[in-house]
Amino acid sequence: MDTHVSLTLPVLSKGAESGTVFRLQQMLNVFVGHEEKGSGIQPLKTDGVFGPETEQKVKDFQQFGAEGAPLAVDGIVGPATWTTLLTMWLSGLEPG
Predict the structure, then answer these.
(1) Domains of the chain (ranges plus CATH)?
(2) Is the pTM here over 0.70, yes or no?
(3) Which residues touch 55 (CB under 8 Å, ≥6 apart)?
């Protein structure tokens, strides 16, 4: 059975502050902010503020976390990045 869900999510970029940014930060921590032993990767602070660290994690996801999905590496969470991120999140796919 196929299910189609339609969501309208805001375009997020540096300077945004909201609960949606908080949720984005949580998802980014799963896919590109997880610390592996010896990696030196630090998780994002989940504060709802889209600052430089969040922007960099978005770029990291756009470049490396979205295997097989060509995304513009611009640090902006628009429709293509949301679709890829939410598909991975809802599918339970593992990072990288």
Answers:
(1) 19-32+44-91 (1.10.101)
(2) yes
(3) 13, 14, 75
